[in-house]
Amino acid sequence: MKTILLLLAALAVAVGPAWTLRCHVCTSSTNCKQPQPCSASSRFCRTMTTVEPLSGNLVKKDCAEWCTSTHTQQGQVSSGTSSTQCCEGDLCNEKLYNAMPSRAPLTSTALGLGLALGLLALLLAPNL
């Protein structure tokens, strides 16, 4: 029984790092939605909106390792300027204007570590 629990704990920890963020990745004049997995180093989903004087808004969504939001109110972006929104969480860049940044959900690594620690506690204290 202990061997099975140790195997499950090792498997949970090994599977944890395989979790990758998914973001909408696209470029359009509207609010595009194209979910794609990000690289393992990406921590943020980013939405950049640029106001083009002749062609209208240009919306670019992608994955990013680092991101700094530039907060502007809808309708207050002047011609030729851009706005960047950053969020952490699966497909959190779906909406064009986020009211507030999303909280990152518990990652598989954190869940695997919690499971491993719980199983370790069961092994060390079997009489509980």
UniProtKB/TrEMBL annotation:
UPAR/Ly6 domain mapped to chain residues: 21-107
GO cellular component: cell surface; plasma membrane
SMART domains assigned to the protein according to its UniProt record, in alphabetical order: LU
Cellular compartment(s): Cell membrane
InterPro entries, alphabetized: LY6_UPA_recep-like, Ly6D, Snake_toxin-like_sf, Toxin/TOLIP
GO terms of biological process kind: lymphocyte differentiation; response to stilbenoid
Chain ranges passing through the membrane: 106-125
Signal peptide range: 1-20
Record protein name field: Lymphocyte antigen 6 family member D
Lineage: Eukaryota, Metazoa, Chordata, Craniata, Vertebrata
